[in-house]
Design a protein that fits this description.
This protein is α+β, with helices and mostly antiparallel strands. Helices cover about 35% and strands about 40% of the residues. The longest helix is centred in the N-terminal third of the chain and has 17 residues, at about 15-35. The chain is elongated and about 45 Å long.
Length: about 80
């Protein structure tokens, strides 16, 4: 069966900056270690300070076996 490829954009916000960095790294590792997702591409944008919070954006292209896996991704990470 052909895989479904989708583009996802995740934005993380938090304080302090070190916490955001650790959380972002943990999130990426968690997604990459899931058997139902294949990360084809990823781009992590630099952390920016916006008012009192730090933010970062992660763009990923992932492949999944079926539409239910996309729903699961959305419920778990969006």
């Amino acid at each position: 069966m052909a895989k479904i490829k989708t583009q996802v954009i995740l934005e993380i916000a938090g304080f302090p900056e070190e916490h955001l960095t650790k959380t972002m790294d943990a999130l990426i590792k968690e997604i990459e270690n899931k058997d139902i997702y294949t990360v084809d591409e990823k781009e992590v944008f630099p952390i920016e300070k916006k008012e009192e919070l730090f933010t970062s954006i992660i763009e990923m292209t992932i492949s999944v076996e079926n539409i239910v896996d996309i729903y699961e991704f959305c419920f778990n990470y969006m």
